[in-house]
Amino acid sequence: MTSREAKFRQAAWAYAVYGVCYLGGAFYLAAMGIAPRALRSGDWVWFAMGGVIVILFPWLLWRGFKWFARVLVFLMAFRAWEVGKIALAPRIEAVVLPWGGSIPTNYPAAAFFLLTVGAAAMVARAAWDL
Fold it and tell me: What is the pLDDT of residues 50-74, one digit of tens each?
């Protein structure tokens, strides 16, 4: 049986990986011009806040704040729901790949959905001591 502290540390690592991947994806989409809102003047603040979240949230999980973990699970579930809707959307826009070529938007959205669900499961495991 894994100790409570170990579960929170694993949840912190899972959220850190999730956060870095999510922030990296947001930077990439903004650089490709797919996220025009992120390119407007002043919206760099959202990226800065994302960077703070990527540092702060894993630290709070590492410290074992059960209340925080429980709230975070619901926020991540909402994010998974929203990304899942994009993954299942009938429209298929192209995302240009860094090495050339392109893929439909649905595929990376599905990957982010799975990443979000996996990280949320690790946080839920710690939050409810499963």
Answer: 888 899 999 999 999 999 999 999 9
Q: 70-91 in b/e burial notation, b at 16+ Cβ within 10 A?
A: eebbeebeebbeebbebbeeee
Answer for the pair 96, 102: CB distance below 8 angstroms, yes or no: yes
Provide the token pair at 87.
Answer: 């993954």
CA dihedral 4, 74, 22, 83 (to 10 degrees): 140
Q: What is the 3-state secondary structure (H, E, C) of 27-77?
A: HHHHHHCCCHHHHCCCCHHHHHHHHHHHHHHHHHHHCCCHHHHHHHHHHHH
How does pLDDT run across 17-39, given as a tens digit for each residue? 999 998 888 878 777 776 656 55
The alpha carbon torsion through 79, 81, 87, 89 (nearest 10 deg) reads -120
Nearest to 126 by CA among 77, 79, 62: 62
Sorted by where each begins, the domain ranges of the chain are 4-127
